[in-house]
Amino acid sequence: MAHLLGAERLHLEFPTRTVFDEVTLGVDEGDRIGVVGRNGDGKSTLLKLLAARIEPDAGRVTRRRGIRIGMLDQADVVDPGMTVAEAVVGGIDEHVWAGDARVRDVIGGLLADVPWHTQVASLSGGQRRRVGLAALLVGDWDVVFLDEPTNHLDVEGIAWLARHLKGRWATDAGALVVVTHDRWFLDEVCTDTWEVHDGVVEPFEGGYAAYVLQRVERDRMAAASEAKRQNLMRKELAWLRRGAPARTSKPKFRIDAANQLIENEPPVRNPVELNRLAVSRLGKDVVDLLDVSVVYPVADAAPGAPTTKTVLHELEWRIAPGERTGILGVNGAGKSTLLGLVTGAVQPTTGRVKRGKTVKIATLSQELAELAEWADQRVSAVIAEQRTAYRVGEGSKAVELTPGQLLERLGFTNAQLSTPVRNLSGGQKRRLQLLLILLSEPNVLILDEPTNDLDTDMLAAIEDLLDSWPGTLLVVSHDRYLVERVTDRQFAILDGHLRDLPRGVDQYLELRRQQADAPGGAAAAEASRPIAAGGSAPPAATVGGAEGASMGGEGAAASAALTGADRRAAEKERSSIDRRLEKLQAQIAEQHEKLARHDQGDYVGLGRLGDELGGLEASVAELETRWLEVSEALEG
To answer: Given pLDDT bands bounded at 50, 70 and 90, which one contains residue 93?
Structure first.
């Protein structure tokens, strides 16, 4: 494969630290590279160096003659005085760009809800970002650098972008280097991974999953080497500490070697580990939404147009203790309204909301509003105001931590503990926000786009924390990896209804495509998306998705038949099947262990155990069939 660009012995320093030291790497045709690392370690800076946005202090970046490089920077902004059309296709006539399949695909995938002839200044920040991404992708580039391209895209938009980038070039042509915290996107698009840390760039083969496996093996080997080094260090220190008279008689190089071991003692990377934070008691009743509808008035409705909009329609949802649910839907579908019903911030137009007496709800919002009152206080002081000590863990393993120790376990350095809250980075504020919420001991936690400003390592740490958190968890996020990782069940808001998704995000995307393909589906999907005032959707652009699969006659009949007591009975039966399946899976695992331990020469005993295993597996198959039948009836 032909070489496109390369970096040789790059060195870059900022006033307070060294960002890169002696970094050498290259990009060849066919490369699809994902860049990961902690926030602040230099991922965006690396892209700027390679794209010639900034120059290194030492070393050089070489590029093949005539190479075309396109870049989307986090700070890139579109001229607010331009229209969307001018920003994306310039002065090219419509009949010219409309004949280009790539341009049509980009506009349909990113700008279906953006008024085509309105000024960029009137758009939201998310819409401006998508306009900038579309303006880049309609161009013809040999190398594309993307810095956080999935920001402001929903699940469908991210899936579209992955398809576009995978099909943009032939297998051995073009090159992509992308910085993103979206781990599903990394796995879907990238064939190589660069980890930026401690002033170096470490390459790994494969996407995110392969990178994690290789990193775990690397860390395991490093831990083994470190254990040997620690033993050597202890021996050397003990040898040195046998007294000053003895030390003067020892060879100086041994003293220097021991001191070097001490000086090079590395800090623990990513020391984020919270085993358990206490939660308030949660009874059997959490929150029930019973036949709830929410209707909003339409401001400035055109003459003859509807004056109200139904966001949620006759919705019934019973949230169970310990339930871990992900909510999917396009922007404007009603996800925030649904969460508002749960918290009490939104009142239903019809129907009622029933809350348990012991329910204590907390929300990790997108706005970081919880930190406003502490903006001028030091981080350590904010935590100290809550408590003087914190108990983490259970039983004999429980330990008490000071506020400073707890913050350090969340990735804050000693220097950052004295930093005013207003001076923290976005990711640091996000971590502090989550910590304050968990310390209030809620038993229902709502995460509204929790992945904003967090790097992949911190996301993994928060997921590990949520794994051990015993309360009820509701997650709204466009981060597909997070939704599938921390929730056991997913729902979608489609046409104002809440639909169960037994097959998760894949099923949601299929439903959206089905409605788009149905007669009138594209128009319905476009109508379901929020349109800013001042213009219409782009001409000649196909809509990249649809609101959801509309029910046919059979589905509507099933939904109508399964209401009230029948629906509740079906939900209870499905929950019962879930519990029985879990017990059977445990019994099957135990049976496999018995087979492994049993005398392999005892054919009679092995046959008996095998028959028992077959019976258990047959029971699982029957229950799974019944579970699917009940689920289909509930879905309608």
So the answer is: confident
How many Å from the N-terminal Cα to the C-terminal Cα in the chain? 52
- What's the token pair of residue 160? 């579209």
Under DSSP, the state recorded for 348 is -
The answer to whether residues 34 and 193 touch, using CB atoms and an 8 Å cutoff, is yes
How, if at all, do strands 497-500 and 143-147 pair?
A: unpaired
Q: 3-state SS of 236-276?
A: HHHHHCCCHHHHHCCCHHHHHHHHHHHHCCCCCCCCCCCCC
Average pLDDT, the chain: 78
In which residue are the tokens 């699982």 written?
620
The secondary structure element, H or E, covering residue 204 is: strand 200-205
C-beta of residue 475 within 8 angstroms of C-beta of residue 325: yes
Q: What is the pLDDT of residues 492-549, one digit of tens each?
A: 999 899 999 988 999 999 998 887 776 555 444 444 443 333 444 454 443 333 333 3
Q: What CA–CA distance (Å, rounded) separates 206 from 212? A: 10
Q: Which amino acid is at 482?
A: L
In this prediction, residue 453 carries a pLDDT of 67
Contact 481, 183 (CB under 8 A): yes
Q: Residue 489, SS3?
A: strand
- 169, 173, 177, 178 alpha-carbon torsion, rounded to 10°: 20
Please, what's the b/e burial string for 296-333 (b: 16 or more CB within 10 A of its CB; e: otherwise)?
Answer: eeeeeeeeeeeeeeebbbebbbebbbebbbbbbbbbbb
Beta strand 3-14 pairing with 58-63: antiparallel
Beginning with the edge strand found earlier in the chain, give each strand of the sheet holding 444-448 in spatial order: 361-364, 444-448, 472-476, 324-328, 489-494, 497-500
Instruction: Tell me how crowded residue 67 is: count the other CB atoms within 10 A of its CB.
Output: 13
What is the C-alpha to C-alpha distance for residues 545 and 543, in angstroms, rounded to an integer?
A: 6
Q: Residue 629 phi/psi, 5° resolution? A: -65, -45
